[in-house]
Write a structure and sequence with these properties.
By secondary structure, this protein is α+β, with helices and mostly antiparallel strands. It has 2 domains: about 10-150, Beta Polymerase, domain 2 (2-Layer Sandwich), CATH 3.30.460; about 155-255, no CATH class. It has 9 helices and 9 strands. Strands 1, 2, 3, 4, 7, 8 and 9 form a 7-stranded mixed β-sheet that branches. α1 packs across α6 and α7 packs across α8 (about 200-210). The longest helix has 20 residues, at about 15-35. It is globular.
Length: about 260
């Protein structure tokens, strides 16, 4: 089947190895910076969820700070940023402030440039997977459960479909964030068999994106106040809708995804 061939060609089987090497690189820095307040430091994002694709050398790292830390969320964020700036001058990388993460540029794996996002957050309670993290653009905070998201996708049985839609996104250069893709796929295939054939599932997802996605609210399953679909502009959503509609007029799979 064509879609299975695309999936086989674009699945990044080395991503977990790469992500763990990046984790090992930053482990001493983060351990020294956080000291006794470090609760956990782990790989998150597509690597942890098992939905990586080739051509996207992204690594997401999550820092869990113990709830006993009395620093404000903004202090935690900017203290980490300043430490990474100092270390980066010695190690050859450049940090930049993003909304909830600190981006790292300048590191490579093999011959590939890496895009690394490091997210610091504070546990809300002892032994809890719920965390509070700083949103620098709005100077506010939000709640997240990163391990909950990882387990949701890893146990969903929809990883192949998520990878296919991420490949489709890259083919058509769409601004379609990964969490929006993940929640869209789960909604589109809700109630369907886990043994659903790839072409049937892909059609169902395109139908959802064409007819429902633009006005639908995609809600963070671990924080009902976080409307994930609001992270996209109407223009970005409309481009996804238009491209999804192209599926139903195409005469060949190679016009849709490659």
């Amino acid at each position: 089947m064509y879609l299975q061939t695309v999936l086989n060609n674009k699945t990044n089987i080395y991503d977990v190895i790469m992500a763990n090497k990046v984790l090992d690189f930053f482990q001493p820095v983060i351990s020294q910076w956080a000291g006794s307040y470090l609760n956990d430091f782990f790989v998150a994002g597509s690597s942890a969820k098992g939905v990586s694709i080739k051509g996207k050398s992204d690594v997401d790292l999550f820092i869990s700070i113990k709830s006993s830390c009395t620093n404000s969320l903004s202090d935690i964020y900017f203290l980490l940023f300043n430490r990474l700036v100092a270390v980066g001058k010695q190690k050859g990388f450049s940090p930049c402030q993003q909304n909830v993460s600190i981006g790292i540029k300048g590191l490579t794996y093999g011959n590939r440039q890496l895009d690394i996002d490091i997210v610091p957050a504070r546990q809300q309670e002892v032994n809890s997977n719920f965390h509070s993290l700083y949103k620098s653009k709005q100077n506010t905070w939000t709640q997240t459960n990163v391990k909950g998201h990882i387990n949701l996708i890893r146990n969903s049985g929809r990883q192949d479909f998520i990878r296919l839609i991420k490949i489709w996104r890259e083919c058509h250069q769409l601004d379609f964030p990964s969490m929006n893709i993940e929640l869209s796929v789960l909604k589109a295939l809700h109630g369907c068999s886990l043994s659903l054939e790839l072409d049937v599932g892909f059609r169902l997802i395109m139908n959802y994106l064409s007819n429902t996605f633009f006005t639908d609210n995609l809600v963070d399953p671990f924080n009902s106040a976080n409307i994930v679909s609001n992270d996209m502009t109407n223009s970005e959503k409309q481009k996804v809708v238009i491209q999804a509609k192209e599926f139903f007029t195409a005469s060949d799979w190679r016009q849709i995804i490659w």
